[in-house]
Amino acid sequence: MSFSLAPLPYAYDALEPYIDAQTMTIHHDKHHQAYVDNLNKAIAGTPNEGKSIEELVAVAGTISPAVRNNGGGHWNHTFFWDSLAAASGAAPSGHLAAAIDAAFGSFDEFKAKFAAAGATRFGSGWAWLIVKDGKLEVSSTPNQDNPLMDVAEVKGTPILGVDVWEHAYYLKYQNKRPDYLAAIWNLINWAKVAERFAAAK
Ligand code: MN
Prior knowledge:
The structure is a single chain. The chain has helices at residues 21-43, 53-58, 60-63, 65-83, 94-104, 107-119, 170-173, 177-183, 190-200, and strands spanning 125-132, 135-142, 157-163. The protein is mostly helical. Helix 1 packs antiparallel against helix 4 (65-83) and helix 5 packs across helix 6 (107-119). The longest helix is centred in the N-terminal third of the chain and has 23 residues, at 21-43. The two termini are 32 Å apart. The mean pLDDT is 97. It binds manganese (II) ion. Manganese (II) ion binds at residues 27, 31, 77, 163, 165, 167-168.
């Protein structure tokens, strides 16, 4: 029993012009595939073989750096692909929009806080919108850690995650991570985020 890489839920060029097809192809077919392959190697023949990715991630800090990094890489990227959709002009609505306003003051203030979390994450990592104790919070994690992990500084249930590793944006945005983080708002699958929010509450 091993993990496998699902296809992207849309075409490689579906996120153009904000994320280019070449970046998506390398990111999914090479980077995400490598996390899956290395996770499978790390658990092969161990008691962790056969556990779900959620079970592994929850105790990642107690297993091994290989499971923490590659299990996190697999979970995070699967979550990231589903967090995005072709640009549609959509924005949060209903309960999610109300919760964002309540937690951050406004949608614009939320976006600024999220972008700052991603931009100030030194090196590689992720920016997150999480549900913690029934409320929304913005956080970030290093490397391939995530808020579900035992080792996370801020724990919670992620409802949106954005990859801020250079491999996610370098071909198009080079060193300009803030430009990538500004463009990503065109691509958020708010219906999916709302569905996760409803499930997390
Ligand atoms: Mn990535």
